[in-house]
Design a protein that fits this description.
The modification N6-(pyridoxal phosphate)lysine is found at residue 210. InterPro entries: Cys/Met-Metab_PyrdxlP-dep_enz, Cys_b_lyase_bac, PyrdxlP-dep_Trfase, PyrdxlP-dep_Trfase_major, PyrdxlP-dep_Trfase_small. This protein has 396 residues and is of the alpha/beta class. It contains 13 helices and twelve strands.
Length: 396
Amino acid sequence: MNDKKSFLAGAGANTRLAHIGNDPSDYHGFVNPPVVHASTVLFPNAKTMETRAQKYTYGTRGTPTTDALCEAIDELEGSAGTILVPSGLAAVTVPFLAFLAAGDHALIVDSVYFPTRHFCDTMLKRLGVSVDYYDPMIGAGIESLIKPNTKLVHTEAPGSNTFEMQDISAISAVAHRHGCVVTMDNTWATPLYFKPLDHGVDISIHASTKYPSGHSDILLGTVSANAAHWEQLKEANITLGICASPDDSYQILRGLRTMGVRLDRHQESTLNIARWLEEREDVARVLHPALPSFPGHELWKRDFTGSSGIFSFVLKTESPDRFKAKAHAFLDALSLFGLGYSWGGFESLALHVGLSDRKVCKAPSEGSVLRLQIGLEDVADIRKDIEAGLAAAKSV
């Protein structure tokens, strides 16, 4: 066979997803890598054991299965190396622990995933790290918030639940002038629709629980670093003793094979639903960056190549004391949508968003924010279910 790597370098996204991360010739021609369960690894002699002069030394430091997934993620991210951790939250907290120390200061976007905020406000604070939250739309203006001891700037675009966009390139450029590490939670877009390292980010974070898995049954996170930050990230992960199981890694690698076609479907259906909701009188606003009406649309259009399957809308409500009642009526009337916290799977999900944790980005005043994960079901059926929810909310 001709050199597949050279061919894949110029191939389309779905072609690459079908082939990256594993060389069948390494495993007797089988197209999938073996699932290697490992803790103990044997050495041929004392000298090799003393110097660790072989590829695999202990289960926490990788197996052929976890390496196959890491190699696939590096191909997608353009990264120098990737670590695997047991959850999306761990994918955020491990690099924080790797690059922050007592006395340091971190800037965290105010539209951040709530468990990340909780980690910052509890464990980081206890470890002597101070944190300030900033407006996601601040762009290069973040320079005014950087202190002499600022060591890390964390970004997330679009923002969690309310989907604010960020000028990642501008923020990264300013942060680097001050010697800060830039991290980004890029779970919403995946590396198919946005490549953080190409926009100045040092550490790209993903909850692979979501679209790479695609089937609502695996918890896993990936953290990918550029060359300048890879060794420190890897060393921190080894020191913390954090790793992902080979079974879960295999399932994520398997999920990657269809992620492109699934994302295409999620994107198409979600935009259909978002545009439809935007036209309804009982909806105050639709929070989706791919809509021209959204404040961050131009940033999304400039930097991103697609949109995924999760967004929010504001349910129009006359009086604040009716916000919760209408939101609950909407959710309780749903049949197709499940009520669940995750997303990225094959099924549609809905929840009432809580925004009381925000410091800078306040909650919309027109009504409750309802987040929808649009799954792989038929759009007509999804619309029918949402209509039932809206009718129930209207009756309250």
